[in-house]
UniProtKB/TrEMBL annotation:
Catalysed reactions, semicolon-separated: malonyl-[ACP] + acetyl-CoA + H(+) = 3-oxobutanoyl-[ACP] + CO2 + CoA
Enzyme class of the recorded protein, top EC level: transferase
Compartments reported by the entry: Cytoplasm
Annotated protein name in UniProt: Beta-ketoacyl-[acyl-carrier-protein] synthase III
Taxonomic placement: Bacteria, Bacillati, Actinomycetota, Actinomycetes, Kitasatosporales
Length: 336
């Protein structure tokens, strides 16, 4: 295989959500909200959350194990975990996940791009494979936003859920199904305040003063985030399809970060692709941040919605702000 023929190929897919379910009615018992408001504004009906004592790493290990199984592999050269809710601020979560998966002393690191984390991680991993620095990479997206939400914030409590999803990338040929192509990444740090946890990093810790409790919670300005998500995911998907050599109308499935069912509908309208081509599992899991795209892939694959040979574009948008997308022809794999 020459350098230009070598590609990173999706060869396995796994996902995991913790068993505890919180329905909209459960939230309405403690907060001034309703199933009607949440489902009509977001498309979400329930979400999964970890039990006390659980962690993002626990979910990442489960999803990673399943992706390895799906690929029929027992090892990977590198483990990348995309997360904004690491088990600890320091060190990264990935080394412990690699250890718990029995992968020995492989390279392992985290990537933080909030809801775009999985796309950023996939792009980074593909770079290692394509450059010949690794033959395989286990890419895991895992988050437990239930641990950083303000219990009194009805908006974020309604939207976010916990979960993990993982893809096994291996070296292959650019012409193979599953080969990644047309990666596009973007950011707008000028709007970093729209989605944030204000304290816990160097800015609010370096004062030496304890942070106010509210500053340790996740906050989001829903309206501008909605508009930016639609704008950037639509243009990113178009850019990536173009780079892959596809007309937008030739895309069979657009698997977007599951932030809000109305965002999916607005992107579909903007790029003029029928909404039926946008797989959605948001009703069952909510917004699972870095886990969202691989979880949506696993569910769409299990539901028979995502089929081998289909032209697929994956797209994300999130805090940073960040956005990105990547294209591939869906390979013949079974999600575990
Ligand atoms: N239940 C009931 N009412 C709620 C509510 C809830 N869970 N959450 C917010 N509201 C209220 C607000 O307080 C506001 O009340 P007010 O008019 O009395 O002030 C009203 O509903 C409208 O709020 P607004 O934020 O304008 O609603 P919206 O239609 O924009 O929907 C979001 C809010 C958060 C669902 C929507 O903006 C959204 O999905 N944004 C993108 C979020 C996202 O995808 N984030 C992740 C990006 S990666």
């Amino acid at each position: 295989m020459t350098g230009s023929d070598r590609a990173a190929v999706v060869a396995g897919l796994g996902s995991w959500v913790p068993p505890t379910v919180v329905t909209n009615d459960d939230l309405a018992r403690h907060l001034d909200t309703s199933d009607e408001w949440i489902s009509s504004r977001t498309g979400i009906r329930r979400r999964h959350v970890i039990d006390p004592g659980g962690s993002t790493g626990d979910l990442a290990v489960e999803a990673g194990r399943r992706a390895l199984k799906s690929a029929g592999e027992e090892r990977a050269d590198i483990v990348v975990v995309a997360t904004s809710t690491p088990d600890r601020p320091c060190p990264a979560t990935a080394p412990e996940v690699a250890d718990r998966l029995g992968l020995g002393g492989v390279g392992a690191f985290d990537i933080a791009a909030v809801c775009t984390g999985f796309v950023y991680a996939l792009g980074t991993a593909a770079g290692f494979v394509q450059a010949g620095f690794a033959r395989s990479v286990l890419v895991i997206g895992a988050d437990t936003f239930s641990t950083i939400l303000n219990p009194a914030d009805r908006t974020t409590r309604a939207i976010f859920g916990d979960g993990a999803g993982a893809v096994y990338l291996r070296a292959g040929a650019a012409t193979e199904p599953g080969a990644l192509k047309g990666l596009h990444l973007g950011s707008d740090g000028g709007q970093s305040d729209l989605i944030q946890v204000a304290a816990g990093g160097s800015r609010q810790r370096s004062t030496g003063l304890p942070a106010a409790a509210e500053a340790t919670y996740f906050t989001m300005e829903g309206r501008p985030v909605f508009a930016e998500a639609v704008r950037h995911m639509a243009s990113s998907v178009t850019t990536t399809a173009d780079a892959a050599g596809w007309a937008v109308e030739d895309i069979d499935k657009v698997v977007l970060h599951q932030a809000n069912a109305r965002i999916l509908a607005a992107v579909a309208e903007r790029i003029d692709v029928p909404l039926e081509r946008f797989p959605a599992n948001i009703e069952r899991v909510g917004n699972t941040v870095a886990a969202s795209i691989p979880l949506a892939l696993a569910d769409a694959s299990a539901d028979g919605e995502l089929l081998p040979g289909q032209r697929v574009v994956l797209g994300g948008f999130g805090g940073g702000l960040t956005w990105g997308s990547v294209a591939l022809v869906w390979p013949d794999i079974t999600a575990a």
